[in-house]
Model the fold of this input.
Amino acid sequence: MNANGFGFGWTVLASTAVPQRPRALSVAALGSLLAWTTALTSFAMDDAAEYKWSPPSAPSIDPVESLPAPAWSARPSDPPILQTADQLVRQGDLDGAIQLLDQFLAQDARSAAVWHAIALLEWRRGRPDRAEERWRVRLAVVGDEIETLRWLARLQLARNRLQEARELYQRICSHSPDDLDARFQIARLDRWLGNLPDAIALLRELCSQHPERPEYRRELATALYAHRQYKEAAALWKEVEQAFPSDENVQIRSALAQVRASGDPKAIEQIRGYLERTPTGSVTRIMALEVLTMVARRAGRFEEAARYARQRMECETDPERRRRWLFRTVELLQQAKSAGCGPLEEAARLMAESLKDHSWDVDQRLARAEILLELKRYDEAVAEFLEVLQRWNPSNLRATLGLFNAAVARQQWKEARQWLDRIESFNPKNPYWAHLQCRYHLARGAIAEASRAADRLIETGRQGAVAVLLYHGLTESEAEEILSVQQFQEQLQALQRAGYRFVAAHQLPDVLATISESSDSGSPPQIACVTFDDARADALRLGTPVARSLGITLTMMVPVGLVEARHPFLGDWDMIASLAREKTWVFGLHGLNSHTFALIDEKGSRGHPLCNRCWIPDQKRLETLEEFHQRLREEYRTSRQRLVEQLRMVSAASTFAYPFGDIGQLGNSNVENAPAENLHCMAQYYRVGFIQSAYGHAVASDDPRLYQRTEPSIDETAEQLVDRLWSNHPTVLGWRLKFEVALASERVYGAREAWNN
Done:
């Protein structure tokens, strides 16, 4: 599987200069069918990965760890009562010291030193709540006393209550605007909280005003790296290295920035050496593993990349991030399968181990089953697919496709036909089912039926088809897990050179109708639509100049709830509205509050909110069907309403990209026929809806609520993308199928005619 989750097994024929007749029809056709369908069933695995909308990963934010309580001891200048308390502390009697100081405060509450001593001793005693209470009482008595605010902020910082700590430091600055410590702590807290633009702006100011403070430059370099401004970060880390020449952590952070910025080979070797001698678990080691994973992947060394990714996964304590790195590891192992079955066996084993603790995770279960199918362990694969259908979601399309694959592999044609009928029932209008039908008939030797299926595909293509691309984020680095802006520009330029023209997503129904009205037997028009999901700031910032230079309008699908919550890595309403006025971008919808897993039962199982009745913990019950329907209507109605209110543009807000690409056909679902429920509700507010597929084309005869998109891979060249899109146009794909049918039936002239077309 490539990064999109689809393979090129069936397109090998297209790149063969002199096609050869297969030795045995049934074996060749069966192999081609399984190569395609196995890849198709697994394409959805990456689409459920939340990391796509939440960059960068947590370790690059470098969150604060809980700090120990500071030591306290009396100073010679302190009041005698503190000297006595100090003696008790040295004897190990902390409670006695606290009691003594409390008695003193009961008589004289003016001494700040006594208040602070009591609070610090409570903290040291392991009672931070009492320490907080002491300082808050002090503030209630004397008002915003700077020293008390500072101690209370340090306590909240130690307890990892970052927002509360920031508010306290902000109170200090409101009384003392030039307080350097408070301003610096606010910048650090903004970085830890993910408010990177604010952190960077304040740190730039501090560095400019106090160039003698290298710790300010170090913090700025860290924030720039986290914000993916690698070139500036790399230059700044070089300066920081001079200020901390013996600090290996600084040296490695500098090397990481150099690799992200330029791919410096010496820096890569420096990072490898660091990993060999550094204990597991440090934040810098985790960042190093992430960088080396991408370096190896970009170089095509997938087994090496998988080893680093697995180590990264094993460092992770957060369940969701661990899950993401499991999928990345498995993806890389699948890409490494050319080395033999070993990587696939390891991938299946990793999934099985994870499922022991995450039995609810249908994505993992399906991914494992699809790998078992590739390994020809059919009984195990069938058992997994059936469990998904019987226990987790009877409408799961991936499981149904998997069972179809298994039946074809065993030449159980009647059973395969039954599964194929269920597959087609998800969207009877999907013209690409003709591809699957053709492969099925070809595998069982039904040449006439296969030829008719290919004809249907050709005809639907003539009625109109537009290639629809899906992107998430962009980066300036060539060593990232997302597409670089250079790759993005090269892909669009290659499409333009190939003759593609571009349209916006909301224009698709009208454009397709125009193609249908003017269709003839000639070559189909080459049209593409470029969409982004998630309103990520990096995509908006880097994609805009590319679109302007090429004269292309891009479509961004906005997750309204996340934008309203000021998610730190997404564009805000001001940024979005400004770009909308320029008309470089048009904006559709990507949901309101459906971008995180929801609890779906009392056992803690999780699922996508659009497909499941959610568990209400305080009432210990599932939401009712009526409550589910009401929430679904709110999701579709309110997200559009709020986008229109912000942008004052109605026409573009007619497109909707389903979060995770799932309306009940990919993951688990406890709602009967969730796909139909979603499509009915969505159609009340939108003209166009998007799912993901291996084909990536919106076709005139298809259901416009289920237009298909495809995501370019970081492993794919621009020329490969152009070839893949053209090969997946239904007319072109139909003619290639006609060629295979003619070749299989030994009709040489028919094969030549089909090949020429």
Notes: DSSP finds 34 helices and 13 strands in the chain. Residues 463-596+623-716 form a domain with the TIM Barrel fold (CATH 3.20.20.370).
